[in-house]
Amino acid sequence: MARELKLGLNTGYWAGGPPPGMAETILEAEGLGFDSVWTAEAYGSDCLTPLAWWGARTEQIRLGTAIVQMSARQPAAAAMAAMTMDHLSGGRFVLGLGVSGPQVVEGWYGRPFAKPLARTREYIGILRGIWARKGPVTSDGPHYPLPFPDGTGLGKPLKASIHPLREDIPIYLGAEGPKNIALAAELCDGWLAMLFSPHYQDLFKDALAEGFAREGARRTQEDFDVAATVPLIVCDDVQQGVDMLRPFYALYFGGMGAKSVNFHANVPIRMGYEKEIREVQDLYLGGKKDEAAALIPSELIERLSLVGPKDKIRDDVEAWRESIVTTILISGDADTLRTAAELVLG
Questions:
Q1: Please, what are the domains in the chain?
Q2: Which are the contacts of 229, defined by CB distance < 8 A and separation ≥ 6?
Q3: 3-state DSSP helix/strand/coil % of the chain, to nearest 5
C-alpha cells in the first residue's frame, strides 16, 4: 500500500574539499521539511566534524552519518562521539555505521577486514553497553576485547563519565549483502541502503525478514527505517539524464573495490546483470572508464534512480511508495531539493 515517504539530504563525502554552500543547502532542506541530513567519509574528510559544524545551525532536522567507518574508530570512540553529538543536537543524532571494504580497511586504516559480520555484532554490543551505563563496560569478544588483555595489565573496565541524553541513540547499518542486511534488521533501528531498486526489492525483503525473525530482534518491519540513497536528475531527455549518471555507476560497479571483492557490483549481479557488470569491471579496471560507463544498461540505471521530466519522476516515485523504503536520500543543490520536496513530499 502506498504511504508517505520521508526525504533526507545526503551530502556525500568530499572530493577536493568542502562542498561549497553546503551549510545553506542544509538549512534549505530543513526549511523544506526534510527529515534528515547525512554526511559520509571514505579516506579523506571525516563525517563527524562537518556534521557537527553544519548541524550547529539547524534546529529540527535529524543529523546522521552515512557512514562512520567502523575500522576508523574503536567502539568506545564511536560511542563517545555519538553521545556528544546527541547532547549537542538535542537528541537529533543518528549513528550510521558500516564496515567499508578491505581496500580501505586494510590499506588506509591498517586494520584486518576479516569476519565483518562478527565484528559488527560485537561493535554494536559495546556501543549499547556504553550508552546503557549500567556499570563498567567489558567485552570478551575477539575483535574489541575490553579491557585489553595483552597490555600492561593496568587497564580496568570503565563506565562513561557522562550520562547520554538518550541511551537508545538510533543505529543504522550501511549494508548491501543479504547477511549484512539481516544483521541490520536484527540489531539496528534502520538500514542505509545503496543501489536499492523497488523493482528488485524481493532481493532485500527476505534478508530483512530473516533479521526481524531472530530472537531478540530490536524492531519490526513496521518501525524500522529503510533509508535509500537515490540519484535524482530532473531533465527533459531521459537518456541524457541516464548518461549523466553513467560515470557514478561505473565507478561503483567497476572501480570501487577489487574485482574479486566489490560489494557494490554484487548488487546488480544479484539483479541479473552479471554478464554486463563483469564486462564493466574489466573495462573500468583496465582504464577504459568511458567504455565501461557506456556498457551499463540504461534500464538498470533508470530502475536505480529517479531521472527524467517531473511528470515521469512523479509517476516513478509511486513504486518507491509501494516499496519497503521509508526514506529517500538525495543529493544536490537547493533547486534539486525544492524539486524533490515538490515531487516526493507534495
A1: 6-234+309-345 (3.20.20.30), 236-308 (no CATH)
A2: 10, 66, 192, 193, 194, 196, 329, 330, 331
A3: 45, 15, 40
DSSP codes, 82-109: HHHHHHHHTS-EEEEEE---HHHHHHTS
Per-residue pLDDT for 22 more than 80? yes
Give the cell for residue 65.
552519518
Q: What are the C-alpha distances in Å from 247 to residues 101, 244, 266?
A: 20, 7, 18
User: How far apart are alpha carbons 98 and 106 in whole angstroms?
Assistant: 15
Give dist(CA 160, CA 335) in Å, integer.
Answer: 43
Q: Torsion over CA of 129, 157, 121 and 13, rounded to 10 degrees?
A: 90
Residues in the chain: 346
Q: What is the DSSP-derived secondary structure letter of residue 146?
A: B
Of 71, 64, 187, 75, nearest to 127 by C-alpha is 75
Helices 178-187, 116-132: axis angle to 10 degrees equals 10
Give the single-character DSSP code of 19. Answer: P
Q: Of 205, 179, 181, which Cα lies nearest the Cα of 194?
A: 181
**Per-residue pLDDT tens for 78-106?**
999 999 999 999 999 999 999 999 989 99
- Residue 28 vs residues 13, 189, 229, 340: alpha-carbon distances, Å: 19, 26, 19, 12
> Which one-letter amino acid corresponds to residue 65?
T
185-238 pLDDT per residue, tens? 999 999 999 999 999 999 999 999 999 999 999 999 999 999 999 999 999 999
Cβ pair 320, 328 in contact under 8 A: yes
pLDDT, one tens digit per residue, over 142-199 is: 999 999 999 999 999 999 999 999 999 999 999 999 999 999 999 999 999 999 999 9
